[in-house]
Design brief:
The complex is a heterodimer of chains A (212) and B (170). Chain A has 212 residues and is mainly alpha-helical. Chain A is built from nine helices and no strands. Chain A has two domains: 11-107, RNA polymerase sigma factor, region 2, helix turn helix motif (Rna Polymerase Sigma Factor, Chain: A, Orthogonal Bundle); 109-212, Arc Repressor Mutant, subunit A (Orthogonal Bundle), CATH 1.10.10.10. Chain A is 67% helix and 0% strand. In chain A, helix 1 crosses helix 2 (29-51), helix 2 runs parallel beside helix 4 (83-105) and helix 4 packs across helix 8 (163-170). Chain B is mainly alpha-helical. Chain B starts with 6 loop residues before the first helix and ends in a 15-residue tail after the last helix. The chains are: A mainly alpha (212), B mainly alpha (170). At the A-B interface, helix 2, helix 3, helix 6, helix 7 and helix 9 of A face helix 2 and helix 3 of B.
């Protein structure tokens, strides 16, 4: 099992998280700082991955935390160890709302768009930065997944949720989610390999399958 | 590889295929890249937004009102009660509901005089009936029998005419 590229994820033990959430509900500023420190990056990453827009991602991040604070302030959430699924369900719904708004304006997503994403070169297969190329190729490949598969991938990898937590969000059985995840990975792999073969027709195999 | 707190999920994990494991590791790195793109100061802006949503809005001088005094509230209540009582009294006096249900004192006096007159007439009739009325009735019955007897004696031996013709002429 490959455990490289593990994102640094600040985490809190469930009991500690319950305490932080309870303090935040009482308006404790330091508790809110902890919650934002724990989850803002992940919420932002999930929104950015789906919307490819940093301004929108920031807007969504703020909106999600304001919603959380309002609900906690109104005692509309009872802490039962499900804070993370609750937080990312709100995030997912908010991202869906923005996707629907965007789809009404019917703005097609061109590959050139990804070149404009900050810090990313144009997805040129001949780039010398092979690692960045892999990332760009994967980002393009994700756009070809179904909405359901894409949501599951972002919840899993950007939200860093367990399959159990994703099951709580989507209401799907864990077995279904595991199978869906496996199928989505295979599809991503297939798309990447197809693009690699088109780029390097003489190459018998790209190095995407190898761990670096 | 992402964190997964459930051990069963680790057992069920899918990555016997190294290519899929590598794809997943690239996904993790993609997620990290998206997270690293978070602009500076976003966390503080989020905290500002939260504090605005939780904290009450700042109070301006124009919003400051002197506390309501209990005496003023009570004076308003007493005035309202007095107004209600005055209105009710005026309504009752104007409508005079007693005029239709109880007689006027003058009517009382007239009824009493009429009753006394009736009693006087009663006693007068009673004195008239004291033997004299029965005697008058007896005299009348004797006279009626005498008249009947005279009539019978007059009609004895008289042939009554009976018409045989039927021409209808009288």
């Amino acid at each position: 099992m490959t455990l490289s590229m593990q994102p640094s994820r600040p985490s809190a033990e469930p009991e500690e998280l319950s305490t932080i959430v309870a303090l935040a509900a009482d308006g404790d500023e330091s508790a809110w700082e902890q919650l934002v420190g724990l989850y803002a990056r992940r919420v932002f990453a999930m929104a950015r991955s789906r919307l490819h827009d940093e301004d929108l991602a920031e807007e969504i991040t703020q909106s999600v935390f304001v919603t959380i604070s309002t609900k906690l302030n109104q005692s509309a959430y009872t802490e039962q160890g499900r804070f993370e699924p609750w937080l990312f369900r709100i995030t997912m719904n908010r991202v869906r709302d923005y996707c629907r708004k965007r789809s009404r304006h019917a703005k097609p997503m061109a590959p050139e768009y990804f070149a404009s994403v900050e810090g990313q070169p144009k997805p040129d297969i001949h780039t010398k930065d092979d690692h960045q190329h892999q990332l760009n190729t994967l980002r393009l490949a994700m756009e070809q997944l179904s909405e359901t598969d894409r949501e599951m991938i972002t919840l899993r990898h950007h939200g860093q949720l367990s399959f159990k937590q994703i099951a709580e969000i989507t209401g799907d059985p864990i077995g279904t989610l595991l199978a869906r995840h496996h199928r989505a990975l295979k599809k991503l792999r297939m798309i990447i390999e197809e693009q690699a073969n088109c780029s390097h027709p003489t190459s018998p195999d790209s190095n995407l399958g190898e761990t670096s | 590889m992402t964190h997964d707190r459930t051990p069963s999920n680790l057992n069920l994990h899918l990555h016997d295929d190294p290519k899929l494991s590598h794809t997943e590791s690239i996904l993790d790195e993609l997620a990290k890249q998206d997270a690293d793109a978070m602009p500076d100061g976003l966390e503080s802006r989020v905290l500002d937004a939260i504090s605005q949503s939780i904290a009450p809005p700042p109070m301006s001088i124009s919003d400051i009102h002197p506390p309501k005094q209990a005496g003023r509230v009570w004076s308003i209540r007493v005035a309202a009660a007095g107004l209600l009582a005055t209105g009710t009294t005026l309504l009752i006096v104007t409508a005079q509901p007693w005029s239709s249900t109880s007689p006027h004192p003058l009517d009382h006096r007239m009824a009493l005089v009429s009753f006394e007159q009736d009693m006087d007439d009663f006693f007068a009739l009673e004195s008239l009936d004291d033997g004299q009325l029965a005697e008058a009735v007896t005299d009348w019955e004797i006279w009626a029998q005498s008249v009947d007897t005279d009539l019978d004696s007059t009609l004895t031996g008289f042939d009554w005419y009976e018409s045989t013709s039927d021409d209808g002429a009288l």
